[in-house]
User: What shape does this take?
Amino acid sequence: MIPLSHYLILSAILFCVGVFGALTRRNAVAILMSIELMLNAVNLSFVAFARYLPQTQLQGQVFAIFVIAIAAAEAAVALAIVLGLYRNFKTVNVDEINLMKW
Amino acid sequence: MEIKLAIFYVLAAFTLWAAGVVVLGKNIVRAAVALIFAFCGVAGLYVTLEAEFLAAVQVLIYVGGITILLLFAIMLTSRISATASRVVNDQVALSAIAGAGLLAGLCYATLEGIPALVGPPHLPETSPFLGRALLTTYALPFEVVSVLLLAGMVGAIVLARKES
Amino acid sequence: MMIFADLVQALYAFTTSWGIPYVVFALVVMTIQVGVVVGYIAVAAMFLIWWERKISAHIQVRFGPMRVGGWHGWAQSIADGIKLLLKEDIIPAGADRVVFVLAPMVVFAASLAAYVTIPWGPGLIVRDLNIGILYMVSISSLAVVGIVMAGWSSNNKYSVLGAIRSAAQAVSYEVPMVVALLGPVMLAGTMSMGRLVEKQAQGSWLGILPGWYVFPQLLAFLIYLICALAECNRLPFDIPEAESELVAGFHVEYSGMRFAIFFLAEYANMFTVAAIATTLFLGGWDGWWVRLPGLSPELSHGLFGLAWFQGKCYFLIFIMMWLRWTLARVRVDQLMDFSWKVLLPLSFANLVITGWVVVAGPQGRLVVLGILLVLALTIGLAVRGRGRAATVVARG
Assistant: This one.
């Protein structure tokens, strides 16, 4: 049996890679991809807990299903916003979208 | 058990490599393709965790839906032969430190805080279990999520529509 | 088939007596299974290509391939395959090499991976997963990603257009397809392909009809066939490959072996959707069988089952080819209209009514029937009344 800590550490590494990507990438779509990575990491740890804690009645997997559904909705809206940005600023480089900076 | 551990390591390495390409890849389309591989890697990890229904749902929705959405957005917001100027912005050092610190904290919490759990040898078949759970115990979040998806769809259409 | 399992057991006993670990044995068995499936796909695809040319020819009152190999040009596909193998491998100048090379592999891998849960005969499945049909649906959605990758990486306007159209079409028709597939799944109470066929083999409707789910789920069957045509990019949903509009759509820049892989994947996909329709609606390998002299009952049942399955699949493929050469191509907006405004509500209605009927007892079914009749009457009266009001308004 693979120890639970293996899955949790893998999930932590994935999450931190996603955090790094969300903080450093300049392309807005790439930031969204990093956010999807973070959500996947979290799902992985939920499902790992659901496997190793049978008394929770697979709550982790149910939660993971909801996270997937919400990630889909969020990706749709976020990409619509990115399209709107592109139409107005002619770029998706988030460094150049700074009209509201002081 | 050795085989399972080997499979886990292979899948984990594959997923982490794909995540690395997503985060550091210069070509955005290659990053999207690497994201597909990362999703498939996570689906494989779900299968090792005996969550086969969730693995199929992950591939169906993430790869078959969200990735296509991302590819559409990439195609509509970049020129075909565009090369990115710089992949990362000025915060690289700070973000790397923040990420590493977060990772250290999470690993410490995992190794110290969570007891060495031994799960049951096999889970019951998850699909009927999940179906029953979603329609009885979790019926309210289920309905709320469907309203959320409807709102998301309508919002995305309104936001992405051309001003006529 | 039981003898197959016995063979595997005997082989396992043999290898363990030599001290070979189980892993090696399992890997060898899996490799053989994959080899058999790939071999079947290759032969079936070649046969389907020849068959399509013959069917299209006879529908268009001509002969089709007649020369290669003698009798009705049966070796035409082999000649085509050799030609494609010997062609020069061209990668366009501005194309993204990695994604360009990867795209046909992704499409073919998706088409091949769906063969794992096809029930070829009683007890003859590579792996009877307990999420069988859900697995096949999710793997089929991988092919769409490969198409988008192919179109984008070709560095060609027509490819990108074809890829976007194909992705939009595939994603739109996937939803009513999955919802239509849920009808038989609810009737059987399981997603496993092997058990679905077994459930159909055991029951019967009204005592005379075989227990196939096409009889109660005719609407779902028709919806599934239409969506399957759209998923395979076949006419009348041919826009991604619209030969007269987009040259060849998303695979215009592919030549030689890479194009052969796309071509093979398309016909493999056609067989997969026919196999799904056969398994869920037409009873899979279920059919009349007798015990052949000299063979055990299981072997006879297995052989008859294999023959029935292949026959039903190729019958459905014949219908798909027939439709291709009879109907005209639909426009993009007609396509999206049809999927979201017609097929999706119909498939949801089918889902709700099936769920009701499955859960309700005998009295509940009468109640459902009553409600349906009242609804049908109301809708019919409303439509008729609106039509009459419209004519009154039009007349003045």
About this structure: Chain B touches chain A through 87 residues (CB under 8 Å). The mean pLDDT of chain B is 88.
